[in-house]
Structures are given as C-alpha cells and as structure tokens.
Specification:
This protein is mostly beta strands and 541 residues long. It is built from two helices and 45 strands. Strands 26, 27, 30, 33, 37 and 38 form a six-stranded mixed β-sheet that branches. A five-stranded mixed β-sheet has the order 16-17-18-20-22, with no helix packed on it. It has a five-stranded parallel β-sheet with strand order 19-21-23-24-25. Strand 1, helix 1 (20-28) and strand 2 (32-35) form a beta-alpha-beta unit.
C-alpha cells in the first residue's frame, strides 16, 4: 500500500462497524480507493472524515453501503453499481465537493437523474449533491426529502418544492435543518397546492404561515416578517450575513434557539411585540460547534413599541442591545387584509436624511396603517471631496440613497394614505408635504434605486446649511477639522451609524474635534447653526 492509493480486497465484507486503521489512513493520505470484487458490504462510517478521498471504485459485488459510509469525504463523484440494494442514512452527506451521484441502469432500488440520487420510484429524494449549483425543481413524484438534504449546498441558488412533498419529513418542527449553510440560496418556493408548506417572497413557512421555517441565507437587505407569524424556528435565519434589518410583528411570541445566529450584517431590529416574553434567550447565540459569527448586540439598535422600553431593558438578551428606542407609531393591521409596500427616502428642507433615527408612519385619517424606521443601506462605493479625502461622501453603488425606509401599509382599497415622520433625536414630528396616495392592493411604490420620496419641511422653513459652506475632513485620525464661515456653531454632535450619540457640544467654537478616542470606522457629524442643520459622514482611520 503506497502513494495515495488504497486497495481493499477480500471474499467477505469490510466489517459491520467502524474500522480504525482505515479511518486513520484516509484522514491523512488516501485520495483514491479501489475495492476488489468479492467485497459485499461497505460498513457504516468506513470512510467517514476521509477529507482527502476523491474517488472510490465500487465493484459489482457490493450490495450494501452503510450508515455515514462516505460522510465528510472529499468525493467529487461516485457510481453506484446495479447490485446495491441498501444505502444507509447520511452515506454521502457533507461531501462538499460531490457534484454527481450516478446509478447504473438495472438497479432495482435506486435511480439518479441529473446526478441526484432518488429511490427507484422517485418518491424519496435521498441525496442532493452538495457541490451541485444553480436552481433545482424537485420532481412532482417526490413525497419525502431526507433530513438535512440541502444543508451545506453552498452553490444552490433556488429551489422549488412541489405539492407532492408532505410533512413532517421535510421542514416543520420535526426537521428544520434542511437549508442551513446554503450561502447562495436566495429563494425557497412552494407550489400553492402543497398541503403542508408555503412560501412568500422566497421564504419558507408552514401551510398556515404561522411558523417561519427558513429564510434563505443568500437574501439581502431588509425583511419584515409577515403579520400572523407566531413562531420563528431554530436556525431560521442562520448565517444570513446580508440581512441588514428585520421587523418582528406583534403576533410573534416564540423565537427559538439560534434563530438569528450568525446574522452579522444586522444593524437594527424592530420588535412590535409590546412584551419580550416567550422569546428564547439563545436566539442570537450558538454553541461552539456551530459555524458562524455571534452578534455583538451592543452595536445594534432595537426599536420597541411605545411604553415597552422598560420591559425590554429588564429582559434577558433584549437588555444587551446598545440602543433601545421606543416607536412613536403603532400600526393597526386588523381588520385590514390588503397590503401595499413602500421603499421610501425622506428629505428635510431639501436635503435627504442621512440618519437612522427617523420613523415613518402611514395613516388613513388618524389611524396608523404602517410604520418603519430608516435603515442604513450598505456602502459599496465611495467618492472623494475637494480635499482629496475619500472619507466624507459615501454612497451605495448605483444609488445616492444611504438611508431608506421599508414599510407595509394595510387598508381596504378605497382610502387615501398620508405620511408623518418622527425625529427621535429632537422629538419633532413632521407632516409630509406630498399629496395623499390612493390605496392600491399589492401595489409597490419605490425601489432602493428610485425610492418613493417623502418630503418634510421644518417649521421655520429655513433650508439646511448650503453645500460648500462647510468643509469637514479628518487629520491623521486624531482630529476632525471643521472649517466654516462662523466663529461659533450652535450645536455639534458625533454619532455612530446606529444613531447613538457619542459626543456633543453646544456653542462649539474650536477649529477641530479630538477624535483620538474613537475606534476606527464610519461616523456621522451633525452641525446646527441658526436652526439650519447639516449632516456629514466621516471615517476614522
């Protein structure tokens, strides 16, 4: 036995259990295995954890492949011979390089199609190769999907579940691990006729949409959990690193362990439940064996219903949020079954707001029908200013909108919707200076590239500080230089991207601010002069 090849021969089997010497050799050296004729059984765990194993020749004499036989190996493809009558659970699970499983014609128990392994009648999906890429439509004949079948399928982008798939063998409370670690998955769709499961916007739910089972890890941006969802399953949002904010409705009373574990891109959470009860204390954390990134809650902003802040400040986990803000608007969603959606930008006195401390309310008369807070849009490009610094003007690619609001508005289809905006920094409320919008069922207004514009005007009607009248730039990371035409600024504030004020001063008369104590990162500078306001972003390097 030399090189990287292992030859196994014999007239019986490889044994009924674990083979220590094979395991040890496979772990460190063996890439190719040839099993001679006469071997009838590949034992359970026989090649498990053989991460360097790339290819195995299985002879026609083999009839049984045991439990986890090739689990966690480096196989890229495999051919199952016609005499194989039994394949144990997990035999090819966690083979991250496996792109094809082929079954020889004439096999009475198994069949393959496009490299995917099924039982002979194609009623059970046994193994979807982990390295297979693109979209996958499950055949209409499939009624059962083996447990964890799609976990670690990092190249799978979308999946369609037919009406034939039944519970509880797929998804649901008895098996909610099917799609964990699918980093490219952006959509899980379910045929409407399925009796056990449903989907909305590519998110997997139970049939009644009271339980959120799985949010695709590849989806990005902001997400509002639909009303009437009462339960968020374990690992439902596992490692959704591109999710930036989430709104949890008042109907949600049960959030399971590790529900949001690894959501490192989150900047804010809005929880519309007035009570933090029945929420699991491990929803943002995980055990040491689970891959992912724990969330530092002290960097996040939590928005809660009016009057509930003290409850959240005293509740486990919720009290760890760095900033807790009470919402001003409480939407009425019942008995209004219809919905329309807005993606909005807000402009105050002609300048678009660049802060997350503004809350938008949508109203029919005096009744609030929807609300949202402005959310930070991830920065993907930058521009330089006249001082040659790239730290001052930032904007997402293809758009100049750094803060957007995403709100759903409920109604009957025969009413007008008006808007108000509440500034949590100053406690001021503004009525939108735009025409009312006629409610339209399922209508969508605005997009991240071209948002619906909500314009508000300050009571004084005085515009913001004119662009170009103030120059702001950092100096070697120690000082923030502020050059302006006045000797005194009425008020100066520095806050982080979550809106948390880190430093403020009234009657500011210096030429610079000492920022040596600030950690590296992006910050917001707000200047107020004669009731005029200007907001800048800068980077401490």
């Amino acid at each position: 036995m030399g090189g990287t090849t292992l030859i196994i021969s014999g007239n019986g089997s490889m044994g009924d259990g674990y083979i220590p010497w094979t395991y040890l050799v496979m772990q460190n050296f063996i890439q190719y295995v040839t099993i001679y004729e006469g071997v009838t059984s590949i034992a359970s765990h026989a090649f498990m954890q053989g991460t360097n194993l790339k290819h195995v020749d299985i002879p026609s004499s083999v009839t049984t492949i045991g439990l986890n036989a090739f689990n966690h190996t480096g196989l890229t493809s495999i051919v199952i011979q016609s005499n194989v009558s039994s394949i144990g659970d997990g035999a090819f699970d966690n083979c991250l390089h496996l792109s094809s499983i082929q079954v020889e014609s004439g096999n009475f128990f198994y069949v393959s199609e496009n490299g995917i392994l099924y039982d002979k009648e194609k009623t059970t999906l046994i193994q979807f190769p982990k390295a297979k890429s693109g979209s996958y439509i499950i055949p209409e004949s499939v009624t059962r999907i083996e447990r964890t079948n799609f976990s670690n399928c990092n190249k799978l982008t979308s999946i369609t579940i037919p009406k034939s798939v039944t519970g509880p063998n797929f998804g649901g409370v008895l098996n909610n691990f099917n799609f964990i670690h699918c980093s490219s998955l952006i959509s899980i769709d379910v045929e409407n006729e399925n009796l056990f499961y449903s989907s909305e916007d590519g998110v997997l739910f139970d049939k009644g949409k009271s339980t959120l089972i799985s949010f695709p890890a590849g989806k990005s941006g902001n997400y509002m959990i639909p009303n009437d969802v009462t339960t968020i399953e374990m690992f439902a949002f596992l490692n959704c690193i591109n999710l930036t904010s989430i709104t949890i409705p008042s109907s949600t009373t049960n959030i399971a362990d590790y529900a949001f574990f690894g959501c490192s891109g989150l900047t804010s959470i809005t929880n519309l439940n007035s009570s933090p009860q029945n929420i699991n204390t491990d929803m943002f954390t995980g055990y040491s064996g689970l891959s992912g990134i724990r969330i530092n809650l002290s960097n996040l902003t939590l928005y809660v219903p009016a009057g509930s802040k003290s409850l959240y400040q005293a509740a486990p986990v919720w009290q760890d949020f760095g900033t807790i803000i009470e919402l001003s608007y409480s939407p009425v969603t019942q008995p209004y079954p219809n919905i329309m959606n807005f993606t909005v930008a807000v402009s105050l006195d002609g300048d678009e707001i660049q802060s997350g401390r503004f809350e938008i309310g949508a109203f029919s008369g005096n009744e609030c029908r929807g609300s949202a807070v402005l959310q930070s849009i991830p920065v993907t490009s930058q521009q330089s200013n006249s001082h040659g610094s790239a730290a001052l003007q930032y904007a997402p690619a293809a758009t100049q909108h750094s803060y957007l609001g995403f709100l759903s508005v409920y109604g009957n289809g025969d009413e007008n919707i008006t808007f108000k905006v509440f500034d949590h920094d100053t406690g001021k409320e503004y009525a939108a200076a735009i025409a009312p919008v006629a409610f339209a069922i399922d209508a969508k207004f605005g997009s991240p590239e071209e948002p619906f514009q909500i314009i508000i005007v300050s009571p004084t009607g005085i515009p913001n500080i004119q662009s170009g009248s103030v120059a702001v730039f950092p100096d070697s990371g120690e000082r923030l230089i502020i050059r302006r035409p006045w000797s005194v600024i009425d008020r100066l504030e520095i806050s982080d991207l979550n809106g948390r004020i880190l430093w403020q001063e009234s009657g500011f008369a210096s030429e610079s601010v000492n920022i040596a104590s600030l950690a590296k990162g992006m910050y917001i500078l707000k200047l107020v002069k004669d009731n005029r306001v200007s907001v800048y972003k800068f980077v401490k390097k």
